[in-house]
Design a protein that fits this description.
By secondary structure, the protein is α/β, with parallel strands linked by helices. It is built from 6 helices and 21 strands.
Length: 331
Amino acid sequence: MKEIWLLTEGDEWEDVKEQIKDAVEIGFTGVVVKEDFAEKARKLGRIEVVARGDGKKACFIDISSAEEQQRAIELSEESDYLFLSFSDWRIIPLENLIAMKKKAKLIAEVSSVDDARVVLTTLEKGADGIAVRGSRAELLEYFRVVAEEGRRLSLKPAKIVEIKPLGVGERVCIDTVTLMGVGEGMLIGNKAGFMFLIASESEESEYVASRPFRVNAGSVNAYIKVGEKTKYLAELKAGDEVEIARHDGRIRKSYVGRVKIERRPLMLLRATVNGEDGSVILQNAETIKLITPGGKHVSVAELKAGDEVLVWIGEKARHFGVGVEEFVVEK
């Protein structure tokens, strides 16, 4: 998810403290404070704190000319963060900085939700985050925008080419701290570069009540996509970060509440798209579902060869969960 920072206002610590407490409770990345308040702010919760004037960690620049734009690019080689304001708001300077900046993360100051959406999607990649002011209600709205406008994935329809019942094995249920809806789930697969969108248990059925916090993800050997890395399902534990994906490619972050591994009958599904093929092993039960290109859930009990389900296709092989450029064949 993109970063979101609070620009605190006021000269009285009690006023600033309440603003910081709101940011901590909502889930902001960090807060910007006066130097005198920095140490006090760090004691209020687990949140990044930047003090104005700490040039090594963060630089604050108003982009009002080509010269300031060039200065920002140069400063991006050393600082961790560049906090950008725009006296005369223009898209082009932000595009230039996104394209040419070095090490630093670009955090753009915005004053409206519409500006936030522009900043987060400029040049498709967007700035690394936004910095905002406002009431608690306004901060919640900004946070919602950041969560929704995060990185998207390109999901593709793949045709099922094989459905094969297997014997009994261990499968993994992932219970998250987040409620999911229809059309949401997790990306799981036997290959790091070919993953199926496995549906959350957010639909009612005649057999079990809905459990919208759960994904019955697959066999213990399978990969799960988490950001730019992968993990084995068997490795997951409470507190681990996971990624929830929607049928339209939107993703959001969540965390594991618990993992449940049980012995169940399994089945193999194999699919293909544009000459690429991949597989996943799931529990053989009617309550286990994949997601179609239209965002609907389809049970593995109803799937047949030729049906289309959503998959994500990657580009690199993996070594300890990280993409690498090397010769690797996965089948």
